[in-house]
Amino acid sequence: MKITLEALTVFESINRNGSYAAAARELHKVPSAITYTINKLEEDLNLKLFAKSGRQMVLTTAGEEFSNHCKKLLAHAESLERSTSQIASGWENELRIAVNDIVPEDKILALFDLFYEEVDSTNIRLSKEMLSGSWDALLSDRVDLIIGAPHYIPPADYEVKSFCEIEFVFVVNKEHELAEQIQPITDEQINNYRVSVVADSNRSFATMSFDVFKDQKLLILPTHQMKNATQISGLCIGSVAKHLVKDALENNVLKIKEIENSSIVGKHQTYYAYRKNHMGKALDWFKNHLVNISHENQWLK
């Protein structure tokens, strides 16, 4: 077989970084080694994989097709390495976890701290997702465990467990025109102002709706932190996770308002989930601790 995993790794590094020099830095190799590896790969394949465009190296048509297969092969190789290491010790070499953006960072880091007091052999790769993006990450095998995910019914080979309840409230800045408005605030009144929403990070299937009106003026943001900031500043209005703006509510910077459309406020259940066929001691550790956290139901309050 002419193609090596090293050549595939070099190829994808150049594709990701746009130059041989950047790939050399990322892979801790000298530039001449990168050049040799790619030249050899192109010679073995009898294909031109890259073309120069200004200072950037870009994929040729053949290179784009090769890249699609390359990513899959590298993912399979990584999966094989993880599973082989796991068989030897029972502990995963790496556990990939995605948390929904509504999960407080201090809570998840405290959980990791507790994990590393007991376990030293497993690396954790943490990612953050918005709305149904956590389900997308699990179903596309980018992660092994998701925490704080919204309601979704996955295929039968996934285990879904209730996590914590989250309460959404509709808030406005204390200086906003709606702050002293007679309640409940109507849909028509809300439609006169800009609403901030978080974009779904889901890449593969139908995204979650924003629960806003037709022709509603929107500010679409990548995180709940930015969304909350727009409402604290008075730039926007909208519903928020109550635990994320607790200080602003206690200091009377934000005011909770009753609204006519109650579907976008109130308590909602969140979940954690994983593949049923994932066997490993690190995942078992988190499953056991998440059961206790779920029963306490305090993380999202």
Tell me the layout of helices and strands:
Elements: H1 5-17, H2 20-27, H3 31-45, E1 50-53, E2 56-59, H4 61-89, E3 94-100, H5 105-118, E4 123-129, H6 133-139, E5 145-149, E6 158-173, H7 187-190, E7 195-198, E8 218-221, H8 224-232, E9 238-241, H9 246-250, E10 254-256, E11 266-275, H10 281-296
Parallel strand pairs: 3-4, 3-5, 7-8
Antiparallel strand pairs: 1-2, 5-11, 6-9, 6-10, 6-11
Helix pairs in contact: 1-2, 1-3, 1-4, 2-3
Distinctive features:
10 helices, D-Maltodextrin-Binding Protein, domain 2, Arc Repressor Mutant, subunit A, single chain, seven-stranded mixed sheet, alpha/beta, 3 domains, 23% strand, 11 strands
How would you sum up this structure in a few lines?
With 301 residues, this protein is an alpha/beta fold. 40% of the residues lie in helices and 23% in strands.
